[in-house]
Every structure is written in structure tokens, then in C-alpha cells.
Specification:
Length: 193
């Protein structure tokens, strides 16, 4: 279970929710509260660099400029669109397919064996390529775990439900599950009083 996983960025002041069980879904979650009051997590290239390291998409700090941030956000929106298409059982959006497939066809992470073991080497586009490839692998796999949206109304985070019996309801207990339960408890108390 990685229900409540979160990672603090290298500078210590950015915390990312990495709870979706898939790189591309975690990237999609960096635009929060999509239906009500969208909140951008990746506000600048430095934050994207921190996210790439925290999520494991990049093996270490990579150069990220404004153009790379723009490519990352386009990939994110395309990934979200395709995941939603799958969730709602409709055909994949052709433009979103083009964006994801183009990113996936880009440079790959090189791997090398060193005295310290396996190391990965690559820049921002190799990292984004891995994000795109993780989405393609997921959406192309008929045996993939169920794709779900968090059960908290305002939360639009998507995740893979790998729990036994596929009973997971929330993107995370801290952020959503416990808050919904507490609100329900307060509502019951009000009802009783
Ligand atoms: Zn949630």
C-alpha cells in the first residue's frame, strides 16, 4: 500500500502526493481540484525538476527550462485526458494520443552497470518519455488494475486500485479519506443533536 506516500522536495518546502501507482497518473495529479478551483503544483521549472526527482522519473536533478515545463504540462494534460477517456469508456482523444505518443518516441533513459549497481542517465525529455511510456503501458494493458477517481467530491486525482478486492476509495487517507469521514461524523453529530 502506498496510500499516503508523499515526498518532500530537495529544498524541503515542496511536498508532492505520489499516490497514484503510476508515473503519468501522479503527473496528472499535479493540477489539483480540476473541477472546482484548479490549483497548479508545477508552478515553475524548479518545481518540475523537484517533482521529476521525487517521483523517480529522473534519476537525479536534470536541467529544466521554461520550454521543458511547457512540454511537461502538455504531456500531463494529454495523459489526464486519455485516463479520463478510459475511465468514462469513450474513445481516446486523437490529439492527446499524438502528444503522449510523441513524448514516448523521444529519448530513452540510458542504463549502465557500475561498481555501485545499475544507474540511469538521461535528461528531462527522457524522464518525460518514461512518464508517457508508463501511461501507454498502463492503458494498453487489458489486465491493468482498476483505474479510479478519488471518492472525495472535489478531489480529481486518479489512481490505480491495487488493493485486495479493489476496495480503495480515496487517493490518500490523510488528504481525502479522513477528511470525508470526519465531515460525515460531524454531519451525523449535528443530525443527532
Ligand atoms: Zn483525493
Amino acid at each position: 500500500m502506498v496510500d499516503d506516500a508523499s515526498v518532500t522536495g530537495q529544498d524541503g518546502d515542496v511536498e508532492f502526493a505520489l499516490v497514484s501507482g503510476n508515473l503519468a497518473l501522479d503527473l496528472a495529479g499535479t493540477l489539483r481540484w480540476r473541477r472546482t478551483a484548479p490549483e497548479e503544483v508545477l508552478v515553475d521549472p524548479d518545481t518540475l525538476r523537484s517533482w521529476l526527482v521525487a517521483s523517480g522519473a529522473a534519476p537525479g536533478p536534470v536541467d529544466v527550462d521554461a520550454a521543458a515545463l511547457t512540454r511537461a504540462l502538455a504531456l500531463r494534460e494529454a495523459a489526464y485526458r486519455l485516463a479520463r477517456d478510459r475511465l468514462e469508456g469513450r474513445a481516446f482523444d486523437p490529439d492527446a494520443l499524438d502528444v503522449v505518443n510523441a513524448a514516448a518516441a523521444g529519448p530513452a533513459m540510458a542504463i549502465a552497470l557500475t561498481p555501485d549497481g545499475l544507474v540511469r542517465r538521461g535528461g528531462v525529455d527522457a524522464a518525460l518519455g518514461d512518464v508517457a511510456r508508463s501511461l501507454i503501458t498502463l492503458l494498453g494493458d487489458p489486465a491493468a488494475p482498476p483505474l479510479k477517481e478519488c471518492g472525495r467530491d472535489a478531489c480529481t486525482r486518479l489512481y490505480l486500485d491495487r488493493s485486495r478486492g479493489a476496495r480503495r476509495t480515496w487517493c490518500g487517507m490523510d488528504e481525502c479519506g479522513n477528511r470525508v469521514k470526519a465531515a460525515a461524523y460531524r454531519a451525523r453529530r449535528r443530525g443527532a443533536g
